[in-house]
Amino acid sequence: MKRLLSIAALLLACPFLRAVEVINTDNTTLVLNAVKGKPIAQLYYGSLLINGEAEALWNSGSSAIECYPAHGLKEDREEAISVIFPDGNVTLDLRVESVRRQSWEGGEILEITSRDTYYPFSVISYYKSYRTENTISTWTEIINDGKKSVELCRFDSGCLPFRVNDPWISTFYGKWANDCRLNEEALVHGTKVIRNRDGVRNSQTSHSEAMISLDGRPNENFGPTIGAALCYSGNYELRFNYPCEEYATFHAGICPEDSHYTLSGNEHFTTPELAFSFSKEGLGGVSRNFHRWGRKYKLAHPSVERKILLNSWEGVFRNVNEEGMEQMMNDIAQMGGELFVMDDGWFGDKYPRDTDRSTLGDWMVDRRKLPHGIGRLVEMAGEYGLKFGIWIEPEMVCEKSELYEKHPDWALKAANREPSGSRQMTLDLSNPKVQDFIFDVVDDLMRENPGIDYIKWDANAAIEEHGSPYLKNQSHLYIEYHRGLANVLNRIRAKYPDLTIQACASGGGRANYGILPWFDDFWCSDNIDPIQRLSMQWGESYFYPAIAIGSHVAAAPNRITGRVAPLKFRIDMALSGRFGLEILTKKMTDDEKALCARAIEDYKAIRHIVQFGDLYRLNSPEDGDGVSSLMYCTEDKSEAVFFWWKPVGFRQEILPRVKMNGLDPQANYRISELHRTDAKALKCEGKSFSGRFLMDNGLDIPSAGKNDADLAYGSRVLYLERL
Ligand code: DGJ
């Protein structure tokens, strides 16, 4: 260590030799030490350093910790990269060779090239700053400059060392109908690994994002916190390594277990982007950074308001027919909706799509159900003043389908094994012919029905059978699948830039910044029960902005939980995300339709705040204190929407008074309740309060009396306007 410090001091004294590389955003700084001939190391990541403080780090006693450690020549430690050279050598000795900087319109890109001391092999570590979003991302380009292949056994996107001081982590787990649940725990000594090898739905059982609260328990508003998101649609691994040292490390990358990669001579391999953000304002500060970054760079059509839609799934499931679709269009148009989406069930010729075990792959309209085709539905939607959307699941095939009969070798299956008999198989996207087929599914639909405005792109299976009839090297399957998927999506986006596309995968299986750039939003969960959605959408909000989170009103009793929650509560829950309906509208009463119509009108007025505003989480649904609450504020703090839900109820319950956040303390705000159903207005209705008062004291939402908030499932949506 002493030696390192004295070399660094020497290097700092020699202005011509750059060693300390600083990368800043508006409020944060990352300092790397890139001494030529030494491994790349990280010296600091935290709040903005100014006036030479980056160099003062050395005097503060900070250590430079290797940030792309390689296998084979050091004592046991968590490694970011390990390879096998053609002669069998398993050691890698990467030393910094050169540093390059370039600016781009949103910040800077730092490229540090490290080369092996003996073999023709190098790694370029990239660090890209997104200045105003206070986000930095890292990834590597691994280059085999030799002629013979090198085996990549581990190839993380990045490694982030952090100084330990009672670190806690927040990560996300789940399964079908219980997506994105928050898990908070103290980081303990050893290695914690989160691995996802679904291959397709990579955010259903675990998420590739994590928060690290550096100084004790996670706090919504205070304390140094790092958020990290691996932006990749395939298999991944997150590792937290906490040795008996002052520093722990966080690693993220493609899960190498089933993905050893043979890097041919002269081949370059680029690892997925790992984005991270630091805030002193706790979890909330990091979330807001990620939301701004996601909205600006990682979503399709980031500045376009999302349409209010009715989706046919929970209304009719696969019982699609022209009359039923028209009825739904009529109803949603009457309620003020803007888009109608026909879900599963509309396709198939030889095999009608009446069950989930057949027909995927046969993307021709089922004339028995829709005698006048999709064209007529698009036309009808236009007549009702709506846009039209359609569901497809193009990465999949059923054994019972014309596609499978024609191309059995297009499905993933392992040689010499009996097929698993699953309800559907995953197509082999490594095969360019399959890629063409999938592109054509979309292209044909769009060319034949030019008015289609929206596609719900579903994917309801994993890579179950690990075998590609096309690939020579089976351990490349996961990686080539996602390269193939990216090719298809790039072609679709190039030809149909304005199309809205939703990412769905058994519900919330594709909530990931690696896939979202091609999509406008993701479906959060097949479970639309509003109580479970409070927790799931709370979890998604750690990294994803409301504009990306598909959030619908469904029928009661809920089809999965059986819970009967009042329509007002179901609406108020759904309004906090990208709002829509998913219900058999013809069964709704006039009063219910009228309430939906009022809520839709209100959503149109607050949509810009929910979809583009800053999120402040106020009271967690997991706290068990009877209330869950959050709010969105416009960037200029001139408007805000406050959501308050009471998911359970006890008579004479004492509820917490929720303090607001994110307002201008100096300004006055007038309060009005949206689509109130109580006969009696809240005391605060029409009154104004200073932002300071609302943030220091909050408002009392009645917990006793005649208001419906007295019962279980009370909910309020308040609009705040700066005077
Ligand atoms: C799973 C999706 O999550 C649902 O919303 C629905 O589209 C079904 N698939 C259709 O099969």
What small ligands are held by the chains? (2R,3S,4R,5S)-2-(hydroxymethyl)piperidine-3,4,5-triol
Low-confidence stretches: 1-18
* Dominant shape: globular
Structural class: alpha+beta
Distance between the termini: 59 Å
| Tally of alpha and pi helices | 13
Number of strand elements? 36
Strand content: 25-35%
> Please, what is the average pLDDT?
95
Major sheet summary line: 10 strands, antiparallel
Q: In angstroms, what is the radius of gyration?
A: 27 Å
Kindly state the percentage of residues in helix.
10-25%
Overview of this structure, please?
The protein is 21% helix and 30% strand. Strand 26 (452-457), helix 9 and strand 27 form a beta-alpha-beta unit. With 723 residues, the protein is of the alpha+beta class. It is globular, with a radius of gyration of 27 Å. Strands 6, 7, 8, 9, 11, 12, 14, 15, 19 and 20 form a 10-stranded antiparallel beta sheet that branches. Strands 21-22-23-26-27-28-29-30 form an 8-stranded parallel β-barrel, surrounded by 5 helices. Strands 5, 10, 13, 16, 17 and 18 form a 6-stranded antiparallel beta sheet that branches. Residues 313, 343-344, 391, 458, 460, 504, 506-507, 523, 526 line the site of (2R,3S,4R,5S)-2-(hydroxymethyl)piperidine-3,4,5-triol (DGJ). (2R,3S,4R,5S)-2-(hydroxymethyl)piperidine-3,4,5-triol (DGJ) is lined by residues 313, 343-344, 391, 458, 460, 504, 506-507, 523, 526.
